[in-house]
Write a structure and sequence with these properties.
The structure is a single chain. This protein has nine helices and twelve strands. The protein has 237 residues and is an alpha/beta fold. The strands form three sheets. A five-stranded parallel beta sheet has the order 9-8-10-11-12. Strands 4-5-7-6 form a four-stranded mixed beta sheet, sandwiched between helices. The chain has a three-stranded antiparallel beta sheet with strand order 1-2-3, with helices on one face. Helix 4 (115-127) packs across helix 9. It starts with a strand and ends with a helix.
């Protein structure tokens, strides 16, 4: 393994060790599709260098493999896997239960089927230091559910709106708040939803101001952007 201040070269992967300095957030692992040996070596290298690892789209089997090896190699490491968001986090010590992040981000989902993507966004923002409030199942099919919580949502520095079907939640929230809204179309829906394409196009064609759109099911991307906005709102550069 070739190490430098800028890169850890594993042969099959080159880990960017300057990313934290350049962007404010260290490198994240996209676990989906990686073979076990590659994922394990990446996790070990990042943990040894940074003392923490954040992985998205991890499977239950991948998490069990990592937990087993890390228990042997790093007995004090805390390996946490969330089966809803598919997020894997490794730390030197467990996160304190009463830990509170900075600022305020609101993560809203249209339905309960959108929660996995919403949780990916929420847990990403929390990992990057933000305080997150969740507002789940507030879709437009029962608009009163959103309006009942809108005063709380308006307190946020950024809002993540997660919706499948026709994706209408994005436009509605965009017309009710004065902060940036990051919209996440999901693949939730019947045939004409086209795996999230209908929701994506609806959000891209929204007439509401102040909204931006990430890729289908990309909760991580939305959580990352929301965390950046939240840091700016809190005066952190």
């Amino acid at each position: 393994m070739d190490n430098s201040d800028k890169t850890i070269d594993l042969g099959f992967a080159k880990l960017d060790m300057e990313r934290g300095e350049r962007t404010g957030f260290k490198e994240v692992i996209f676990c989906q599709g990686k073979i076990d040996l590659h994922l394990l070596e990446i996790c070990v290298a990042l943990f040894e260098k940074n003392g923490e690892v954040f992985g998205t789209r991890a499977t239950e089997m991948q998490s069990q493999m990592i937990k087993k090896i890390f228990a042997e190699k790093f007995p004090c490491a805390a390996v946490d896997y969330d089966e809803v968001s598919k997020i894997l986090i490794i730390r030197k010590e467990p996160m304190q239960e009463n830990h509170v992040g900075i600022g305020n981000i609101a993560v809203c989902t249209a339905g309960t089927a959108d929660i996995p993507v919403g949780e990916e966004a929420a847990r990403t923002a929390e990992y990057f230091g933000a305080n997150v409030e969740r507002f789940y199942d507030v879709g437009v099919a029962g608009l009163h559910r959103l309006l009942d919580r809108i005063d709380e949502i308006r307190k946020a520095s950024a809002v993540v709106a997660v919706a499948g079907m026709e994706g209408a939640l994005a436009s509605v929230i965009g017309g009710l708040v004065k902060v940036p809204v990051i919209c996440v179309p999901t693949s939730v829906g019947y045939g004409a939803n086209l795996g999230g394409l209908s929701a994506l196009l609806s959000m891209l064609n929204s007439c509401a101001n102040g909204i931006s759109v990430v890729n289908i099911d990309n909760g991580y991307g939305a959580g990352y952007i929301a965390a950046q906005i939240n840091r700016l709102a809190e005066g952190i550069k």
